[in-house]
Design goal:
By secondary structure, this protein is mostly helical. The chain contains 2 helices and no strands. The protein is rod-shaped. It comes from Mycena chlorophos (Agaric fungus).
Length: 82
């Protein structure tokens, strides 16, 4: 998931430079702003989904690890002999 997130982040930066380069090679009227805005928005939405899933997996993983450590600690403390 982290690889997809970083790839989408790099793709976003590359696409902005690609879009800006279009204005050097073509007339302003020939560059379709609607096409580039919709493509860039799609990349941003994909990046948002990847980041959301990554944060969700991280958050659920830390909760599960905390629960496991807490139970082990409670069993160790309450299971000792006096």
């Amino acid at each position: 998931m982290l690889l997809l997130q970083n790839s989408a982040d790099n793709l976003q930066t590359w696409y902005l430079s690609h879009w800006a380069a279009q204005y050097k090679h073509f007339a302003d009227e020939a560059v379709s702003a609607v096409w580039h805005i919709s493509t860039y928005t799609s990349i941003l939405l994909g990046l948002f989904v990847f980041q959301s899933v990554a944060f969700l997996v991280y958050g659920l993983g830390t909760l599960q690890a905390s629960r496991h450590l807490h139970l082990r600690l409670i069993n160790a403390v309450l299971g000792t002999t006096l």
